[in-house]
Amino acid sequence: MTNIDHLRGGQPLNTARTVNHTKTATTNTPSTTTIEPQHDAVSLSSQGKAVGQIHQQLAAETSFDAAKVAEIKQAIANGSYTIDADKLANNIIKFEDELNDL
């Protein structure tokens, strides 16, 4: 497979734009004028901006209930934490069903 750099022979690529103008019909002396490069611009719709704001809000919030985590840690530490096997199994099945819907 041919490398694209090989096609231009390692020479730098000239990106300046030039325009050729003729001064008169009898003398075809071209003059070169450099045109400023164009810049791309992006604008977001109001919906796009709203999604960005929601994303920023969600990123700033914690993704878990710190009070509940502290409560569970305390229950584990003092030995009072119990696991409901039926509830755990039902939640695992529910989670698997949600994954199948994706």
TrEMBL record:
Disordered as annotated region, ranges: 1-36
Domain Anti-sigma-28 factor FlgM C-terminal as annotated: residue spans: 40-93
Biased segments, Low complexity type: 15-34
Sorted UniProt keywords: Bacterial flagellum biogenesis, Cell projection, Cilium, Flagellum, Repressor, Transcription, Transcription regulation
Pfam family, one: FlgM
Organism domain of life: Bacteria
Function: Responsible for the coupling of flagellin expression to flagellar assembly by preventing expression of the flagellin genes when a component of the middle class of proteins is defective. It negatively regulates flagellar genes by inhibiting the activity of FliA by directly binding to FliA.
Name of the protein this chain belongs to: Negative regulator of flagellin synthesis
Originating organism: Photobacterium piscicola
Lineage, broadest ranks: Bacteria, Pseudomonadati, Pseudomonadota, Gammaproteobacteria, Vibrionales
The encoding gene: flgM
